[in-house]
## 1
Amino acid sequence: MTPLRIGLLGIGTVGGGTYDVLTRNLEEITRRVGRPLVITRVADLDTDLAKSATGGSAEVTDDAFAVTRDPEIDIVIELIGGYGIARELVLDAIANGKHVVTANKALLAVHGNEIFTAANDRGVVVAFEAAVGGGIPIIKALREGLVANRIEWIAGIVNGTTNFILSEMRDRGVSFADALADAQAKGYAEADPTFDIEGVDAAHKLSLMAAMAFGVPVYFEDVYTEGITAIEGVDIRYAERLGYRLKLLAVTIRREAGIELRVHPCLVPEDVLIANVEGVMNAVLVQADAVGPTLYYGAGAGSQPTASAVIADLVDVARLISADPGERVPHLAFQADQLSDTPVLPMDDVQTSYYLRMRLADEPGVLADVTRIFADESISIDAALQQEPGKELAADFVVLTHMTTERAVRAAIAAIESLPTTHSDVVLLRMEKLS
Ligand code: NDP
Ligand code: HSE
């Protein structure tokens, strides 16, 4: 059995986990693949750390290009991250005829169209199961398990760091800053954690899932992205009183005129499964025409869970390495020459339900004015909650709307904010029933 020789670039959180899991489970994995998968070379800037992590069983270098150009290497695993050197290394590995496994969603969301084209031209695979949902095999599901279906929508919690922060804040009353520091210490967060908390990481992942669901290019630039930094505890509590949980949701929906692509904090009914996904766990709900809804759940980040997905890709590549490139599963699930140019809908055209919180004067006729504005915009109210007025004779008024458009809600908000009896800006959160 000739071993498959692997070069690992970056032996940090995920790279270290990959090395450990592959070493620990090598015998079992070899029984599955039919030949051993061996990491023979490791590149990391910290060569001492790499030497101690590998215990001398792999050749260590600080020059990653020496690995991508090594004729003895069959597969390169890129676990450095970012779009800079990682892009150069991945393109160099492809140019040198190596198959590539990466967990780098940022790289693929921004440069995926270029990278997949280069890989197709060279006849090599770029596998990226770990890039979305950590250890959850969601890429496999979208690319293979669901291919009989016309996918209608996807809604997911795909960022472990923000889900961890929201859970810690809600359950244990931990501050935002402390919860983020904990997520960083546990190795969940990106090198630049603003990618997590501002929703960018979830947008990277959503653009990849949408491409595979709908057969469109990777549209990262068009994802509407809103993170969790502006969330106030009061809205988490009002949402709970109304029977909802607040989650950072990545949503893509196929509409007649185009596709919705959006990441934002979102109320979800507390009795749907996804509302109860806590901590670093991720979940992706896929609605498809034949199978109906399917839900994929598991650890969305962390060393060994992510390593599980990286190694699944290694096994896939090992099994397909001698297949004709034209017979392999396409990178983005659809044949590269069959992508459609379905547009991404502007946010104004998005259709969903809304949570709106406003502070109103405690005077006769105030609610009538507000409800008249909703009626003028053809917005139907689903539920409402009014707080007892305080000393300042104003009170929070929270409204849940039925399905409407973002355009109508924005117009209603502008009208409400211009009333002399409105004492605050209106807080807007979106809401998905997921049914
Ligand atoms: P880490 O920062 O823990 O690891 C990256 C490693 O790459 C470090 O050891 C770093 O060395 C090394 N490195 C940096 N530059 C170079 C270079 N030029 N040549 C060789 N090595 C280099 O990151 P993670 O393991 O957390 O993330 C890796 C990738 O996996 C990212 O794309 C991330 O988005 C993705 N990912 C991460 C998950 C997680 O839970 N952490 C989950 C899913 C995906 P040094 O420290 O010395 O700079
Ligand atoms: N920073 C990411 C997260 C890592 O928190 O989900 C997994 O992609």
## 2
Amino acid sequence: MSHPKHEKTLVLIKPDGIQRSLIGEIVQRYERSGLKLVGLKMLVPSSDLVEQHYSLDPSWKKSVGEKAIGSYEKRGIEPPSRDPIEVGDRVLQGLKKYLTCGPVIAMVWQGAHAVEVIRKMTGGTEPRSSDVGTIRGDFVIDSYQMADTDGRAVRNLIHASGSTDEANQEIPLWFGAGDVLSYRLVQEQILYDVNIDGILE
Ligand code: CMP
């Protein structure tokens, strides 16, 4: 089994993160956790790339649609359709508009439990209910309610892979093989080396 320190995850700073001048804040939060930045690029994604990204998991549309229907019901509102695939498709159309409206930053972060640690720091999907102390909880106030009222995607600053399998599919979509670097940070000695020596003189 590969050592946990090799785990990688994909993060996208979405157009609202760039427009809110939060690039430095977001990178700093991930960086100071001890994770290592091994890939970074800025681009305006095509509609096709966004569709491919959210279609990697064939069950994504259905599960997002089911959650969206649940969120309508919780608020006592009739969803636009009872078919989760149809509702998931509406979310996807909104996401395509949102993610192609300006530059995004795609990053690959590596380190122990990278997927879990990044998701924990990022916070839950809906900024309104994501925990204080997480990036979404601290810097954005959007909600399912507002997104539904205005017929658009929830603006939550960031996408972060949900599992290692997802990360392994998403990274090659955004980065060529040579674009993800392999190098050692000096701090890895403290984070991972079995024997910490060479500190005292
Ligand atoms: P992300 O973590 O990139 O995964 C899917 C994205 O779809 C999510 O962040 C939100 O931006 C958006 N999203 C998810 N559910 C809904 C919903 N019910 N209504 C609008 N947008 C949604």
